[in-house]
Structures are given as C-alpha cells and as structure tokens.
C-alpha cells in the first residue's frame, strides 16, 4: 500500500484543488484565489501526480470532477475543517473563544419580527471578541446540505420534521399562508396555479389536491412577484407577506390552510459541538426567550 506523507506544498496544492472544485472550474477559481490559471493548473497537476489519479476533467466540454476527485474533495474538505478547529479548540481549553462561527440563514430571515440574530451577534462580540462571525444566505435545501457537510456551524431555519441528525433549539414561531392578488375575482381563485418552490409546505399543499402546480420560483421575491400579476397563488411566510401586501395589493386567500412551525437554531449531531457554538446557542436562547408549544406542555 502506498504511504502518502503530505508536506506543506502538497497541502497548499490540495487547498487549491478544493477551491477549484468548489468554484466549479478554473476560471471561477482564478477570482476566488487571486491566482493565474497556469498557476492553478500546476497545483492541481501536482496533487494528481502525488495521488496517482486524475481528479478532474477540463476542456471544451467543461469542468467536472472524476469519481476519484469527488472522494478527494470530500476527504480533503473534512480534513481542512478539522485542522481549522485545532487552534480555536485549544484556545477554548484556556477559556479563550476564537475562530470562525459560520451561520447559515434563509432569505428574509431578518424580516421576522421575533428573529433577534443581530442582538445575539452583538452579545457574542462582547463575550468573545476573538470569534469571527460569518453569515451565509442559502436556499432551504442548501442549509441542510451545508450543515451535513460541515461548511457551516449552525443554521437558522424552520423545523418541519424530527431528524436525529440535527438538534433544534426553538427561537421563534413562523406561519405560512397562501396569498393572492386583490384584483382576482373570488370565483377564479381556485383555478389559479400555485407557484412552486422547493419547500415542505408547498409540496404538502399540492399533495392535498386543492392546488395544482404552477411555474417554478427560486425565492420569496419571485413568488410574490408572480402572485402580484393576478395569474397565480403563492405560499409566503406571513411576516414577509405583511411587509409587501400593501405595496403589491396582496391578501391571504380566504380558504388558505395555515402552516406553522418553530424557527430554530440547528446544528449537526454528527460532530462534536465546539465551545463557541455552545456559547452562541445560549445567547440565542437568552435573547429570544422563546417557549415552544412542546416545552409549554
């Protein structure tokens, strides 16, 4: 069996390869790394030579990872994340909190009146000035994926199902309803298609048989814009709907179902929780003072 002892240059080249893979190609990685394409190519070739396999295909057909490249990316990313935790975890032993705190949130999270993320970050800064927060806005599906892959420390997102892989800390409640434009005649509303976006409540509404699937939308603004035309219905969180309904003449559809869930700070149970995450979770609980239905008996 071949033994691989990576030196500092090998690790540097491996980081470059990871950056190329995550960026989706050499051209995008140039901007991310501030390196020339020939230099990036040299690093990737060195990693391939070191491992003895081809990690990616590049050419006129575009960039894509080989099966070996997929494995290398997953393992290298996990290794670099582990290396990045060494210093902060050692600092924590001495009572010093440091390192990155990556938080994933969905679009328009801060429009919820009960979401006090900025207040929590302010308190974290006061208690642990050595911790550097990083806020990443993602789609619903990207939040879970990023948490599973360890690209974020925690996410703020709705809890829709019980999942043993995640631990949920409730911080507020969110309600979703179906909206229509004021101009639409009541008799025509049942025939309007429901704008589709990847979300559990939209899927549930369509499965109920009351709504038929309409065109795809990538986010809340897209849904709202299409509903405002009068040709569609759309599922929106009520706190977001309250912000735009007057300007765009939207209203909650009379027979709309009511979907609600707890908005939670969520972290993975698959890896040890760091001290800085523990501190931040305690801050979130304190500033929100939220009592879930389950805990209220």
TrEMBL record:
<dbReference type="Pfam" id="PF00126">
    <property type="entry name" value="HTH_1"/>
</dbReference>
<dbReference type="InterPro" id="IPR000847">
    <property type="entry name" value="LysR_HTH_N"/>
</dbReference>
<protein>
    <submittedName>
        <fullName>LysR family transcriptional regulator</fullName>
    </submittedName>
</protein>
<dbReference type="Pfam" id="PF03466">
    <property type="entry name" value="LysR_substrate"/>
</dbReference>
<dbReference type="GO" id="GO:0000976">
    <property type="term" value="F:transcription cis-regulatory region binding"/>
</dbReference>
<dbReference type="InterPro" id="IPR036388">
    <property type="entry name" value="WH-like_DNA-bd_sf"/>
</dbReference>
<keyword id="KW-0238">DNA-binding</keyword>
<dbReference type="GO" id="GO:0003700">
    <property type="term" value="F:DNA-binding transcription factor activity"/>
</dbReference>
<dbReference type="InterPro" id="IPR036390">
    <property type="entry name" value="WH_DNA-bd_sf"/>
</dbReference>
<dbReference type="InterPro" id="IPR005119">
    <property type="entry name" value="LysR_subst-bd"/>
</dbReference>
<keyword id="KW-0805">Transcription regulation</keyword>
<comment type="similarity">
    <text>Belongs to the LysR transcriptional regulatory family.</text>
</comment>
<feature type="domain" description="HTH lysR-type">
    <location>
        <begin position="9"/>
        <end position="66"/>
    </location>
</feature>
<keyword id="KW-0804">Transcription</keyword>
């Amino acid at each position: 069996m071949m033994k691989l002892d990576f030196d500092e240059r090998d690790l540097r080249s491996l980081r470059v390869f990871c950056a190329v893979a995550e960026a989706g190609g050499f051209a995008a990685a140039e901007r991310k790394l501030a390196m020339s394409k020939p230099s990036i190519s040299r690093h990737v070739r060195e990693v391939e030579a070191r491992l003895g396999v081809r990690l990616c295909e590049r050419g006129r057909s575009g960039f894509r990872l080989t099966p070996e490249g997929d494995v290398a990316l997953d393992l290298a990313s996990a290794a670099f994340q582990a290396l990045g935790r060494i210093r902060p975890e050692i600092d924590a032993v001495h009572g010093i909190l440091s390192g990155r705190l990556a938080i994933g949130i969905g679009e328009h999270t801060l429009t919820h009146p009960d979401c006090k993320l900025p207040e929590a970050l302010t308190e974290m800064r006061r208690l642990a000035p050595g911790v550097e927060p990083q806020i990443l806005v993602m789609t619903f599906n990207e939040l879970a994926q990023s948490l599973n892959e360890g690209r974020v420390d925690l996410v703020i997102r709705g809890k829709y199902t019980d999942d043993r892989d995640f631990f949920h800390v409730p911080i507020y409640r969110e309600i979703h309803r179906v909206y229509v434009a004021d101009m639409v005649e009541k008799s025509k509303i049942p025939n309007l298609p429901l704008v589709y976006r990847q979300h559990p409540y939209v899927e549930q509404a369509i499965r109920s048989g009351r709504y038929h699937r309409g065109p795809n939308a990538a986010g809340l603004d897209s849904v709202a814009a299409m509903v405002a035309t009068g040709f569609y219905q759309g599922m929106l969180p009520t706190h977001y709907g309250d912000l735009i309904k007057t300007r765009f003449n939207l209203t909650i559809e009379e027979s709309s179902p009511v979907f609600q869930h707890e908005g939670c700070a969520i972290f993975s149970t698959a890896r040890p929780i760091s001290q800085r995450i523990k501190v931040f979770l305690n801050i979130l609980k304190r500033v929100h003072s939220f009592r879930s239905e389950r805990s209220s008996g």
